Amino acid sequence: MPSLTKRTTALLAAATVALTASATAATAVNRSSSDAGTPAKVTAASSVTSGIALKKDTIGDVKKGAALWKQKGVTKSLKDSGVSWFYDWAPTPNGVKAPKGVDFVPMIWGAASVTKANLAAAKKNGDTLLAFNEPDLGAQSNMTAKQALDLWPQLQKTKMRLGAPAVAWGADQDGEWLDKFMKGARKRGYRVDFIPLHWYGGDFTTANAVKQLKAYVQGVHAKYPKKPIWITEYSLINFGAGAKFPSATNQAAFVKKSTAMLEKLSYVEHYAWFAFPTSTNGQDETGLYRPGGAITKPGKAYRAAG
Description:
By secondary structure, this protein is α/β, with parallel strands linked by helices. It has one domain (4-34, 47-304): Glycosidases (TIM Barrel), CATH 3.20.20. Helices cover 33% and strands 16% of the residues. The chain has helices spanning 4-19, 74-81, 116-125, 145-156, 177-188, 206-223, 248-264, 297-304; strands at 48-49, 52-53, 64-67, 85-87, 103-104, 107-108, 128-133, 161-166, 195-201, 229-236, 268-273. It has a six-stranded parallel β-sheet, with helices on one face. It has a three-stranded parallel β-sheet with strand order 6-7-8. Strand 3, helix 2 and strand 4 form a beta-alpha-beta unit. Helix 6 runs parallel beside helix 7 (248-264). The longest helix is centred in the C-terminal third of the chain and has 18 residues, at 206-223. It starts with a helix and ends with a helix.
């Protein structure tokens, strides 16, 4: 994940394909279900699947985290932000030195990443493991549910807390990628401890965007009521026609309202805005901190969250 610019380009390409099959572009790569109401409270400690007690969350009480790549001053920025965890789509922190109290969460990005060396590195660097980044997109890890299931025992052998593969969209829908994976995992008796989600909103009206994000998260929780949820990527990016990014003021307003909403959902264990650093093209776009540690308007809102 070298930069926001490359990430946005890949998502735009994927969204173009997705939008040909959908008349709704409010959330381009994440299609929100209707509001499912306020679900019953669940905790990681009480979640059970197939008779197997799920592992507890060991990261600090602060929900917010950072999805990042290394840039100048990132350690200072992490400390300033008040996050409790970060990840970089890799099994190691790649030279990012975290301040005290900020945990690193490793990831096994795709099929080619499932090696003894990477699994050992992940286990050395954390006790929670994120797995397979957007396997439902050709521009990302590009895997079938069966491929992911066949590799899953190797991830389980680490004895780390395991997040499901983080799909780009449709986690709340029957018959889509995550549904196929979760049904397969249940049939094979595999352990999945929590559900990571990605969400990008193309409606820049704050109230609408917060409602759409909440509906999607609630829809996933309604489908997997015993699974805690992490939102490991989210922000406002329009993948349809028109402006791709809202103003910094608009983005900051969404940060404030969305984090307040996520803080209130007991089954949401953690969330991470995309992205913690600003783009490498010299524009802030969705970023929270610029190289060297200067904070953006959305960054100030994120720092105040939690």
